[in-house]
Amino acid sequence: VQLVESGGGLVQPGGSLRLSCAASGFTFSRSGMSWYRQAPGKERELVATIASTSGSSNYADSVKGRFTISRDNAKNTVFLQMNSLTPEDTAVYYCYNLRFNAWGQGTQVTVSS
Fold first, then answer.
1. How far apart are CA 40 and CA 43, in angstroms?
2. pLDDT band for position 55 (50/70/90)?
């Protein structure tokens, strides 16, 4: 099982980023997927989750209305569209698969002027 994130970077407050997580080694379409983040000095927290087939999603209160999780089962990829970013969103963002307890390597998102 392999999860590879991409799309992080430096963005100004109010800006947007789209993270991607390419999955391999398992039947992606049958697995729910999640995004977590970990800011310096803080515990890792769940950001968003998307179900395998229904595509239903859940979000942390801190990102509701700003972030959108989606998936492309044909490309074995899950996305996190992040809008209206604030400095509090600065963290390493990780892709996670619960079924296999698999983590990606993380991608750094820095929101700063």
1. 8
2. confident
